[in-house]
Structures are given as structure tokens and as C-alpha cells.
Protein 1
Amino acid sequence: MKLIVALVAVVAAVLAFLFLQDSAPDFDGTPKYTEASDFTGTPNFTGTWSDPPARAEDAFCHIGCLIEARDHLTNLLNDPALYDKTYRELRNQAQGYQITQLLPGYMTPEALARRMGNRDPRPVSAICEPWGLVRIALSPHALQITPYEDHISLQYSEWTALRHIYMDGREFPENLESSKYGYSIGHYEGEELVIETRGVISDNFGAGGFVHTDQANLIERYSRVGEDRLEVEVVLTDPLTFTQPLVMARAWAWAPGEEIFAYDNCVIPE
Amino acid sequence: MKLLNLVLMTVAIGYPFSFGQAHHAYFNVFDMASISQIEGRVVKLELLNPHTAVYLEVVNEQGEVEDWVLEGPGRLALVRRGWDDDMFEIGELITVHGNPSRQGKKAMWLDRVVRSGGDEFVDPLIADELIIEEQRRQQILQYRQNQE
């Protein structure tokens, strides 16, 4: 009887190990990227994407931006009356518009009161604190997308953050426990990959010192534009923070040779 | 070594900050609307995440040696743009352009580093910005030529 129990335990351990191998791709710090896709699904986002192309609006949104602010920048850039202004001047103008005028208009009074942004007494600005879901979803630098049979993994170079997107048609669990990156379920709609995430902890999402609460819900819509460009539109709702959904965007350029290496040496300069 | 001069050029120059800048607190720590310039000798380069640090010895106008830290984009961004751990000799004289500390600390945010031989290492985002600026100039030139 003991032998049977032992055998069952060993088999269970092996199965669990294999399951974890499949659902959580190892990241061992060695260069790891996908040159081409074995994935036959449609659409195909497989591979490594990185910083945006050197294009005005993309650079402005390189860590995400409100689409309204991006459109505002486009209008500024296309206004002949502003042709004597540099891109930098107009970008700063659009950024100021985003942070000081647009964003506060989306916030509940309580959220505005929670706003961070006191002058920081430290001599340097680095923070060794991994970013939350919204900020990592809009993270600059590399994003490696790998489809599996029942899920997709999103591996970010920053913090080597790893997200799992379940693609097996499951529903959100009841009594979802909050976590850093929440619980994500995805599906395809035409040429788009649509991901919904719930169950995130309250976190700074990077927008001028604002934070969202654990009531936040994130919907990401990824689309591939041609061979070399990946775009995402992100809709963030949080009834305790926003009076209306926040619609943001970011773009990546195809970067098949880019390495993702361990982000395990975070150090704050002395 | 000589502190050239902390030339604060309030010339509407700002770091290409974006929606997510607050997590790095650039604006709380550095004055992104100003550019300063210092010259000093490299003590140490730490090519780290999330930010890189170059430690410098700078001689001020009184002839005193000051310890400065130049903070810049992290290893993720800079290695792809040609930086490596051994790129500077210890004691190498470099000129640094960057955004000064808001608190008057001996710290800057990297805009560009110029080596004594003239080689420049530019913040990758600044490098992209130069491309975009040139594209904009060309488009405006084309527009004006069409108007004539």
C-alpha cells in the first residue's frame, strides 16, 4: 500500500513539474528570443518586439500615453502656425496637456487626493520596485510574445516580468485573489488579440503619480500593423479612480535579434 | 579636471518624458527643462537596471574635488546602443551634458557624454528625438516649397 502511495506521489510530482514547465516558461537569464514562429494561429504576434520606431507620436507614447494626448500632439505637429516650434517643444506641450489637464479630468475626487508627486529628496531617481500591471503592459524595451496551446506568455525585458494569458476559454474565477499582474484571459477578435485582466493590486500606473485601486480592470487590444509594427490599445477602468475609462496606446517595433536578459541587479546609485 | 561651468540653459529643453515617467520620478529629482555641463574624470561606471550610474570626480571653481553621479537609462537601453562595462577607462576625462538635480545635489540625468576624442554617447531617446526632429524639418521644408 505504501509503495502505491509513493508511486502516486512521484507521478503527481512529475505531472506537476511538467505542467509548470509548460505554463511557466523558464527564464534563466540566457538570451532568449523567437526568430520565427511555429505558431499557426491567426493573427500571429510571436516573437520579440522592442522600443517604438523613431516616429513622433510613437516616441511620445513610448511608455504609453492617452490617445487623446497623442491626437493632441498630432494636431500640434500638423499646425502650420507651429512650424517654427521643435518637436521637443510640442511634445512637452502635449505632455503638459496630458498630465495637468486631461488626466485630472478623468479622476474621481478621492483619486486626486491620493495622487503622489511630492518632491523627492533623494539625489537619484531610480526605484527598485517592480512595476504593476498597467505600467508593465506599457513598458518600454523588449516584449517577447510566445503562444502555447492553451495560453500566451508575455515576457517583458523590464523586471523580466512574465504574464500568462489564458486562451482556453475559461471564465474568471470567483473570489479572485488580487496579485501584481492579476488574472488574464484572452481571445482573438479578427486580427486582434484581446486580453482582459482583473484581480490586480492597487498600484502606481505611472501617470503623473496617480494610482489605481484593486478594482481596476484592464483590456488590451494588440494588433500587428504590417511586418514590423505591433500596437496596443489599453482601456483601464476603475470606478474608485476614474470617472470614465482611460484609453491609452503604445507601439513596438519588430526586434528579432533583441535579447532579453535577467533584470535581477536593480541597484539605486549612491 | 576642471568644472567647466554649470551652465543652466533654460532653453525649453526637456527630457522626452512620457506617460510613465513618474515611476522613475525623473521630474521630482531632475530639472528636465534645463541642461548643465560638467567635465570630470570617470571613477566608476555601473551599467545597471533600472538606471545606469557614472561616478565622476569633478574639480570645482575653487579647485576642490567633488564627487558627482550621472544617472542615465538602464542597461537594457544602453547595451543595445553600444555601451559596455569597460567602455570608460578609470580616470578618463569626459564631458557630460545633463539635467541638473532639483535639490542642488551633485547629480545629473544623462543627455549625452562626450569623450576627449570627440566620440559622443547620446541617451537613446535623445538620439531618436534627433531623427524625429530632422524628419519634421524635412516635412516643413516640403510644405513650404509646395506653398511657393
Protein 2
Amino acid sequence: MLKPGDVAPPFDLPCAFEGKIGHLALTSVRSEMIVLFFYPRDFSFICPTEVLGFHKAQAAFKAEHTSLVGVSVDDAETHLRWAVELGGLSYPLLADPDARVTREYGVYDDSEKVAMRATYVLDAKRNVAYAVASSINVGRSVSETLRVVRALRGGRLCPADWQPGDASAAVELK
Amino acid sequence: MAAPKPEEKRRVFERLASIREVVFGIQDGVLTTAGVLAGLSGAVNGRSQVILAALASTVAGALSMGAGAYLGTRAETEVIRSELRRAHAEVSDQPYIVQESLMEALAKEGLAREASYRVVKLLSSAPQALSSTAEEKIYGLSQGSFGNPALDGLLMGVAFLLGALVPLLPFVLIASVHAGLIAGLGATALVLFAVGYFVEGRLSDQRYPALAGARFLAIALGAAAIGYLIGLAISPLGAGS
């Protein structure tokens, strides 16, 4: 798995977005930051809680100048049907059926032949700023991802459990 | 024509499931009693003593087999009930995990992933349906897995008694010990063949029911013959005492 400071591997993959199939390259994403999250499969029961969680929080991420991009090893047609099944999604789902990009990001689960539940936050230079992965059976926290994005954008040292607006937010460097 | 209701189908299956106790009881009753008659006829001089010993063995065997079937089914039922409670709790506490597992189970049975998802999603709208399907598909358990301990015990005991009568009746009715024993063993072979023929061959619609009868006879007699040969082999060990 990549670690903070690593250069994010470039990608140019088919995707499902706004009811259509298109292509999305890392270089074409213009936002300041990107939340690139990998999930195991479409048409499952844990993944939609995350996928819909990010969808519901999309406005909050947008306010932080951050784009959301989901990736799994399903093909774009399946992503399209999955997005329709979920009632539509406000961000693209990348199709990585040969798992090339998933492997480059070091989050391919060889035993299950799917992507792990992994989240990368990429900074403006498209370097990894944050990386986390969890067991396939445990869904990730969307609010924690948002908290990390806000913390990263603040450009300050943040203590444990820092929250935006905390009086003790800024820890001055001596 | 109206399709049979699920409860009726289940009752038929439950009755058929009792065939195990019947077959086991008859086979054991026939062979045990035939063995006792054959063994005692050579060792004991009095015909009435052989008959009394065989009757005592029959009653003890029927009671023992009936009690064993009762206790076995009761223990099995308790274990299954406990597992079902655990499975039910998992459905309530961790629906996502159960839904995922159920999807995997359906996909393994040939349903496409998307179709499995939709089936599980539909089932999830009725928690009881999700729970009972998960119990069956994931844990291999169902309410129909419960046997009836009393019925199983009764069937086993009665089947053992009926089976025991097969070699015993000719022995009682024919005055000559030798002829009675031959007739009893003949009846034993005939009944073992008949059980295989009807239960394995006819009830399960096999193409060659006679073959099923012969197989049943061969397995039952083969087990008895192996037991006899082992007895012969170890008999010298007791010769000195």
C-alpha cells in the first residue's frame, strides 16, 4: 500500500458517472484534493453504506474543494447498473476490471480477487496525503475521511480527535 | 389441480425421514436375533433356553434401541435449536454480514451476482424470510431439521421388535432346532433383501430395485460375516481361561 508522500500512480479508466459511461484520468481531476476510495464489489450489502455515505457527504467534500472517486474491479456497465440501483451517485465510479490500478495502489486482495476497503486522500500535487485500509468486512467512516480532509487542508498540526472549530485546533510549532 | 401446500409437503418429508429409524431398527433386530439364535443353538442344548434367551435379547434390544433413538434425536434437536438461536441472533445483530454470506451462497448455486443481490435485498424486506433462508443456505439448518424424539424412539423400538420376529418365529414354530435355525436364517435373508428392494429400490425409484435389495442384503450379511470372522479369530484368546 502507498504511504503519505508517495506519488499517486496515474490512471485513465472507464467510469460510470451521471448515468453514462465515460473515461476519467487522474490528470483531468481539477479539484485541490481527491478522495480516492477503493471498495470490493458492486452489488453487495456493506459497500453501498460507504458508497451512499460518500454520496450524501459529497457537498461537504465539495466545500473542501475535494473530489470523490470510487474504484472497484467491476466493469463500467456494472457500475452504471449499481449506481441506478442506489438511486444515482454524485461522483464517478472507476472500472478497474483487470485490477491494474488497484494493484498499483497496493490495495488488491489476491485471495478475494477484489480491491480492499482502502481510502487515499491525494493532495494538490497528487501525492498521497493520507492512506488507510480496513478488513473487507468492516466499512470505513465517511465522517472520519471528511475530518482528515479538513485537517489536511488546514495545514496545521492537529491533535488526536481534532475537529474543525476546536479551540485547541492549532498546535503551534515551537 | 391444486398444488400441495408447503406444510403438507413438509409433513410428507418428515414421515419419509422416519424411514431411517425403521430401516435401522429392522436390520438390527433381524441380524441381532439371528446372531443370538445361531450362536446359542450351538452352545446351549435346550431349545426353550435358546428361545428364552432370544426373547430376552429382543426385548432388551428393542428397549435399548428405542431409548437410544429417543436420546439421540433429543440431543440432535437441542443442538440444532441452539444453533438456530445463534443464527437468528446473527441475522438480527449483523444483517450486512448475513446478507453478504447469503449472496455468496446463492452465487455458489449458480445465481449471477446481481440477481443474488436482488434476491437477498427482496428477502431483507421480510426479516423472517431473510432469517429462515440464511439459516438454511448459510448454516444448513431449518425448522424441518427437528426430529420427533418420542416418535423416533417408538419407531426404532417397534421396528427392532418386528425385525427380531423374522428369525425368531420360524425357530419357535418349527420343532427341530436345526430346521428352525435354517428357516430363520432364510427368512432373515429374505427380509433383508425385501427391505432393500422396497425402501431403497422402490421408494427411491431406482431403476433396478432387485439390485438395491441385493446390495442391502450383502452389506447387512457382510457386516454380520465380518463380525463372525473376527469372533473366530479372537476365540483362541479366550480358550485358556
Protein 3
Amino acid sequence: MPFRVEVGFKEGIRDAQGEKIAKKIRNFLGIDVKGVKSIFVYTIDADLTEEEVERIASGPFSDPIIQRFSINEPLEGDFDFLIEVGFRPGVTDNVGRTAKEAIECLLGKRLKEEEKVYTSILYLIKGDLNEKDAERIAKDLLANTLINRYYIISRKDWDGKVSIHLPKVKSIREPQVLKIDLNIPDDELLKLSKDRLLALNLKEMKTIQRYFNDKRVIEERKEVGLDERITDVEIEAIAQTWSEHCKHKIFNGIIHYTDENGKETIINSLFDTYIRRATEEIRRKKGKDDFCLSVFSDNAGVIKFNDDFNLVFKVETHNSPSALDPYGGALTGIVGVNRDPFGTGKGAKLIFNTDIFCFASPFYNRPLPPRLLHPRRIFYGVREGVEHGGNKSGIPTVNGCIVFDERYLGKPLVYCGTGGIMPSKISGEPSHIKRARPGDYIVMTGGRIGKDGIHGATFSSEELHEGSPTAAVQIGDPITQKKMFDFLLIARDRGWYNSITDNGAGGLSCSVGEMARESGGAELHLDRAPLKYAGLDPWEILVSESQERMTLSVPKEHIDKFLELAEKMDVEATVLGRFTDSGKFHVLYKGKTVLYLDMEFFHNGVPKREMIAKWDPPRYEEPDFPPPDDLTETLKIMLGRLNICSKEEVVRQYDHEVQGGSVIKPLVGISNDGPSDAAVIRPILESHEGVVVSNGICPRYGDIDTYHMTACALDEAIRNAISVGGTLRHLAVLDNFCWCDPILSEKTPDGPYKLAKLVRANQALYDYTTAYGVPCISGKDSMKNDYHIGNIKISIPPTILFSAIGKIEDVRKAVTMDVKRPGDLVYVLGMTYNELGASEYFLQNGAIGNNVPKVRAKAAKRLYEALNTAIENRLIASCHDISDGGLGVCLAEKAFSGGLGIEVDLRYVPKDGIDRDDYLLFSESQSRFLVTVHPKDKDAFEEIMKGCIFSQIGKVRDDRTFKVIGLNGDVIILTDIYELKEAWQRTLRGLF
Amino acid sequence: MGKGVRSIVISGYGTNCEVEMAYACKLAGADVEIVHISELIYGEKRLDDYHFLNFPGGFLDGDDLGAAKAAANRWRYARVKNTGEPLFEQLLRFINDGKPILGVCNGFQLMVKLGLLPALNGNYNEQVATLSYNDSGRFEDRWVYLKVDKESPCIFTKGLDTIYLPVRHAEGKFIPKDEPTLNLIEERHLAVLKYIHNETKEPTMEYPFNPNGSTAAIAGICDPTGRLFGLMPHPEVYLFFTHHPRWTREDLPAEGLGLAVFYNAIEYIKENLL
């Protein structure tokens, strides 16, 4: 008999969670509730006695000091509306799983597999509200109907009893394998692709058709009990492996590109032509100083840290899932990208996270198109998902940024990055190299397989109904993963496996499929895989994207020890088959072959895509507005803009110090709240060597030209790293493209223009990474970030993120952005041009303009090298890069972060083509810094900077006055630094 | 291991500060081992072989049933395989042997929920206080000023006056069972550490100086022997000056004050247990 245990706070104990919900209802929905109480509900579906349940409820399920509980009766009846929110069948219920383990521990006995604990939350709402309000609270705030079920009861309809609901997965039928005849007309091939959500085009479907008509293939298939028909397991596996996600068909395809002069070029693979080639050239040029170890070939890029350790870095996106379920999508994003460095080489210990989000304004106040969540809710959920994913995994979130643009309403971008460190040698072998050997066991560790994440996000909600598990959204469980990582690091150091990779997109089909390339084949038994519940078809087991799983190749001599330690450490590990050198990917279910494909075809059979790109530069109206009368006020407005204002409330909720290596924190300055340019950590506690992490992203510039957007994003990532003490000598980047669909079609008539933007971005990537000598070591692309329902289409602005990782020899020389002492000299480094195109300032004035910032790499490189030398010689008291909002914003941030006033004279600022104070203050020219220098270091500093553009423009004051003298010699800004700080801090205050 | 002070840091099921905690022990002069709790349960390691027990921070079992609740349940009911000895008995023996225990953050929550702290009448098996959700309703990472009760019997804070450390938690609000319990804690000087205002230097209920709304601004408590100590702030991440959030602008000693907590423990062991 199932039991229902309700746990709530005692009288007089503050219910902070309930208060938080009440606040959200008021703020997000505008419904004036009096109060909300939260009650936690455990529904125990197990064969237990009442006495046992009493012990459980009073033991692990409740806190005797502050909580009380009830069994099978309501804990409280004082409400106007009651809303209960639980999970849909099959959705991962982490708390329920922990609760079950606690029961087993308490009772000293194992519960049966099918005995479970389900959790839900009961919200008791007081206030003058109606049914419709309650429905909104449930649907728009408390529950996400993709993964949650909920019910609402008003006080008058309440019978004073509890009802027990068990969200069990009911499996309807026996697992089956379908066989499909591919010798059908083209339109039916396409229909098949569409109906099964394969995302394969006709050319690809025909290629598969040809393979299955090959006589040799048919002969060989007969020998293993198959025929010329393709099985559903095979077609699904091929679709995963050939997906855009796995094969990057746009980056590897052939592009017919026409530039602005009508000149045509054929680009055979953007990736090979621009990205890979750039890195190869940089590495060649670096010669013996080349620090790259593994680039583009593994789950993450690997560079050298020192003689004993390597660094591993990867940034992924999780956009579509985050649009549907912001919390779950983002949580999965972060714990998912954790597995990339962990699944690189022999596996890296994870040492930092960095996250970049792109949202529409949280203050968006127009009607929302159907199925879209409000940007504030997305912001909230994503922030919280990343908090739980990062904090609970014990990985510090060392920095990040948030970008706002209305078009991210269509799809938010959630970039999650993770860095790792590994010994350069493991068991005497280079750690960045892995190789599954024929005969090795295929072992899957970690979580179990369910229907979660099948077909990623291409599902439609109509397919979801009570009783059928949700297919779309996975919910990550950081603790299951942490336990697995704890175990695998030991196994790694003992040399117990030859290869490792993660189960992400495409599940086992991709992980085993990829590793099988190392050995030359694999034999995989799907019926041996541990499942969350019965009733999965073999194809579902193969492609499920259930979280927290790694696949390993374990040689025979270590398998027993491996499995034994896993059991001891409470980590599930299962042998699913063997790696072979048969040249075949061979998958069986209960002894029968369900997939039999040539490795060559499986991995290299996908035909090249051909695409058209045409570059037609846009022209915008050049703005013509008079300079503002009160620049003090203008500066405050600029500081409060979403893309500039303080993100402290978000940052504070991330643990940025766990692991004990924090050196430069995300918040710095006299009050620990100034915006840091980049992070510095010491991954090895005994050493002063540090890792520098930074990011660069500026999608607005892409409205004018993605070439310059890309150059600027790269420059921003690099100059942020330089700013804290990083060096070009030991710096690498990851490229991360998020685009709107660039393929010409009925739905996307402007495909060639969008693809041209992609080409231009790649050209800049080549030009500028080579100019700086900073190689790309890994990357990611997400090419379909559009919203299209009915006649509403929202495409995100093409967005590129560069994430930099580098080394700083001695962290004790690192520099922060806040001014330090009265009397220090303020210098601007770099030239300010009339470059306000797509700047925050023009946007504030309703314009875009055309003068997009350009990167002059030669001068910038010289400047970066000089500044680095100055920092290494400890001549720089503070350094802040100049970016969004230009010089004006940068000066203000430096001053209030340091708690000291600044006085500068704009007449000393090196400039080119600018004659307006406002333009000089807010131009977003690249490769510039503001530094402060102690007067005693003036000569030494200026000596080092010789040959660069730089100028002393003022001094740090000993009071709180912020004073700027304009080009005509008048005081144009005069205010208190704390007024500026208030303007900067208030925008997002209280939102969380 | 040699004849010196032997330290053990318990890991597993979601702990995540074990490496820096072990490093703090090492810097303070102890031999140290990070031991996965399964090694205790499988009888491969025993608490009896160590002098100094550390419960590091983290998210034990994801804090799924409340901070450290499921882990407290495990410590209370788990038995050593083969011998069948309850793990909790090993723990009680460790305490009775006069050895010190330090719990930080999640480790502090674990100690309180097990009843190890404050253990007013020497009963280490009854929970009389808790750590609940911060009044802010949020997880926060921020540095706080703390004042040490100099009359406290706590062996870990000897010679310390005020310290500056980071808190990183969502459930750090200290709540005693009732008024008499609080009075006893205060009277016996078991409220070792209190959150103070950065200007008045006095215990405060004002956010963010008191980051979670803790009763009587309590940030850490000890048992009546002073050998068991738990605190929400993290002493193990203020070992070097570069850990300090303002190290680039203040003159600081090379060693961080957090290390003093570990020096004191090691010193105590050398004087009393070796």
C-alpha cells in the first residue's frame, strides 16, 4: 500500500522557499498573493508497515527542530488554493531516488526494483485570487508541463483528504524491432525521415537506400540473420551519427560563396579551410613552443599546462532544451559539458565552469508568441539550473557573462563550459591519447537508460500524455555524476581502461560507435543495458540521451577489479559487449542482430551538403542626434543598460571558490562587487602557476558585419585574459557558433545571406587567430536557432563566442580592475576611433549605424605584449579592458569598484576621427585598456609601452568625486562614484 | 604513515571540498588521507587509526532530503561489512578517545543533524539544533567577518580574534531547538563564531553581514569539550593571501587566517594525543 508523507515547517519557523515563491508570483505574474506555504510530499510506493513509515518520516524525511509531518492525511488546511506539482511518469526524480536509498539504509534492507519514492511539492496559497490566477501560477511559474504534472484545488472544493498519485511508467507492449523497406519513392523516403524525426534530407536517404541495395551488404546481412530491409535500430543510429550535431554538415559541406563584389568562390568545408588550417599554421609557426596536444579530434581540446599536467577545455550549448525547460535544460547543459573534458583523452579532473547566457530582456512586456516562455522565467530557470549543476558538482563557476537582445526571445543561448586538468602521463602513457583495443569490454557507467532525451528537442508536446514518459527533456543529476567521476578518476589512475567517452547526443550509438573507430568495430548487446523502467524498444536504448553515463573500454585483465570498485563506490557499471576489429558495428538484442553496419559507411558515408551563400552588406541609416546636454545623466543611463549593469546577484549564487584555487574572483574591488575581466585559478594547490579563463561575445556587431563581430569577440576574449595577466605566448581559444538556420528553403528565403554571414565569420576567425597566434583547439556549432510557429518567425542574431584558456606563470602577479590608491596615474592604452556602429550608445539612441569596431591586430598584438611585460614587472596597479559602453563605462567601473574618485581629461585620449565628447566616451573601439600606475612606476611603465599608443589622461582622487573634462576644456561629468555605482547596480536588483 | 598527526578527510556521495581540506591539514603539519566513506563501510579503513577527523563541505546526496540529512541517516545506520559494527559506534569511540573533529559547511550540517553538535549534555546522538534555508532563499558565495568567542572551550580557535572567510551555502541559518538550548549554548560559550558587522565589529542580524539570518548570528559551534567544531564558513580556502578577495589591494600576510584553525587542531593533538 502506498503512503503519503507531507513535511512542512513548524509554526513560527520561516519558510524562505515559500516566501520566495510568493515574491515570484507577485513579481513575475503580478498576482497579489498574501502568502505561500511549501509542503514537501513523499509518496512511498513500497511494502512497508505503518511503524516503518513513521520512523522514516520522523527520521531522514523531516528535521525534528523545524519541521513536522503527517502520514496519509493533510498536514495543513489553511489555504485559498492548493497546487501540487510532481513529475510526469519517467522523469528523473533525484530526491525520490535519494529518499529510497535513505529508507534502505534506515531499515537495513533493500527495496524491490519497482518499489519507489515519488516526490512532489504542495503549495498552499493564501490570497484573494480566482481559478484563472491559480492556473497561471501553476502553469506559468510552478510547473513546466513538459516534465511536471500538477493539480489545483480551491478551498471550497477541498474534501479535507489526501489523494495518492503514483506517476508510474506503464509499459504498453513488448519491445520490438521494425524492419523498413527503403525501396520506396523519394517522397516516401522524405516522409519516413520526417515522421521518425530523422532530420535526414533526400540525398542522405538515397545514400542509405543505395547501401542497403548493395549485393555484398545484403549477403553479409543474411549471415547474421538480417535481410535487405533496414531495421529501425539502424536507421535511428545512422540518423544520430549523421546528424548536424555529430557531423557538422554545414561546416563540412561545400559552399558556393558570392562576395559583395559578385566574386564567386567555392569553399570546400568551412572547418578545414578556416578553422583547422588556422590552428595548423599557428602550431607550425610556434614550433617547439607549440603547446597544443589534442585539437578538434576529441570531446575537448587539450593543451599543455606544464611538464606534468595538461589542461582540457570545452564549451557546449544547450539552447533548445533550455527554451523548453530552462531549469532542466541548463542543468543538463552544465553537467553534460562536464563529461566532455572528463571523456577526453584518459579523462580530466574538472576544475572550472564558465557560463554565458543570451536572453531577451527580463522586462519584456509585450504579448508572447505561442509556446515561448517569458524571458524572465528563462533567465531564472537557466540561472538556477546552472547553479545546481555547477555547485553540486563541486566545480567552481569562475566567470561568465550575460548578453541581452530582444531576438533571443526566439531561443535563448545557454553556453556552458568546463575546464579540466590531467597528469600529462597516466601509467606511463600520454594522457591525451586513448585507444580502445579489440577484445576490450564495452562498459557503461553511471545512470540508467530511460526514454529521456530521445530525439533531443524535435518533439512536439502532443506526443506527451499521462502514462507516457516524456521524451524531450533530460534532468541531470550532479550527484550521480559526481559519484561516477570520483570512481573513474581512481580507475584512470590505476590504468584500468584504455579509452573513455561520454554519452551525450546520440547516446550509446554515438559513444560506442565513436570508440569502435579506435578498435575497428564493436559488438554491443542492448538487452544488457540497465534501464530505468521496462518497455524500451532496442532503438530507444541505443539512442537515448539519458544523463550521467560514460562509456569505457576495459581490458579483460582489469574488468573484475573495475566492476568491484564500482560496486563498492555505489556506481552502476555494466558490461555491454566487446570492442572488435571486425570493421562492423554489430548490435544485438537478446542474441538477435538488430544492427549490422560497416564502420566505414556508418561514420564516413554521409554525403557532402552543397549550399549557397551570398554576401550583401547591409546599410543602416547613420544616426544624427545632437550630443546630450547632461553627460553625467547619460553615463548613468549607460551604466544601467542591461548589457552593462551589474550581474552580481547572479554571480553570487554560483560557488566560485570550491576546490580552493581561486585567485581572481568574478567580483573584485574594495567591496567585492566590481566586475572582473577574467578569472585566474590555481589548479594545483602547491604551485603558483595559474590558469586564466575569459570570454568574448558581441552579437550586436554582427548586424553590421559578422566578420568584424568575430574579430571583436576574439579580441575581447584575448584582451580580457591579457588584462588580468595572461599572455599571448600561452593562450588558446574555443570557437562556439550559434546561428540561425542558414540553409536556403521555403522557410528560410534569406538562407544565402545568413550563410554568407557564417562564411564571413570564419574568414575573420582565420585572419585574426593567425594574426594573434592564438589557436582554436576545439569548438561547437549550433545552427538552427530559430522560432517558427504559425507566421511568426524569430531568428537569433548570429552569435559567436570565443572562450580563452591560458597560463599565467605566477598568480601573485595577477592584476584586478579596481583602482587601488589615490594619486595613481590613469592611462588609456590603444586608439579610440569613431566606431559606434551597433554600440550600446547608438542602441540607447535607437540607432545601429555602420561604423562597426574593427580590430587592428598588428597594433593590438604589440600592445598586448607590452602590457603583459608591464604586468610581469609588477608595474600595473589595476587594469580593465574597455568594451561595452566604451571609455566612459570603463572609467566609472574602475572608480566605484576601487572606492575612489577619478579625474580625467578627454583631450589627452588618443583618438582618430572623433570630435564629440559623447562619441569619445562611448565608442567601442577594440584592443583598449584603462590602467592605473603608481607614480614611482611611471617611467618604467612608459619605457615598456614605447611604440604603442597610450596616454596618461588623469589621476585617481582621494575622495569620491568622478570628474571628466571634455574636449573643449569644460567639466562635462561631475558626480559621486556611489551615484554611478547605484545606477550600475539597480537594474537587476531584487530580480532574484 | 609516520608517527605524526594522522588526519582523515571523509569523501564521497557528493562531498567536494576534500582536496583543499586535506591540503590545509597537510600545510598545518599533519599526515593526511582522503578516505571514501565506502572504505569505512567495507572495513578497509577505520577511524581508530587517525587522530583528526574532517567532514568537508559539499552536497552530500545532493542535499536532497535537506542539507546532509541523507548522509546523517547513513552515518547513523550503516554497518561495517563483515564485522557488522555500526559505523556510528566507531564515530562515538573516536569522540570518547578525546580526538578532535572538524565539520565545515555541509560537514557542519552533518554534525549538527547527527547530534554531534552541540551535544550539550554529552549526548552525541540527539539533534537539538539545525541549519535551515538562508533567509534570502538563495545560495550565496560571499566573504564574511567573524568574531571568535575567546572564552569558548573550542580548541580550534585558540588565539584567534576576528577572521574573514567565505560562506558558500543555501542552508546555513542556525536554529536551536528552543530558547533554553540557545541559552545553554551561549552560557557555555559554545557559540564559537558569530557573524559581525564590518563597521561595528559586533554580532549582527543585518544582511549581508549575517548572510543567512542565523539565530544570535551564530556561524559555528563546538561541543562542551571544545574538540568537536563545526562552522558554515570555509577556513580551508583561506590558506594563502591570494585566496583573499582583496589581495591585490591590501597588504596581507602570506598565510591566510583559515590555516590557524588547522594549526590549532594539530597542536592540540601533539600536546594531548601523541
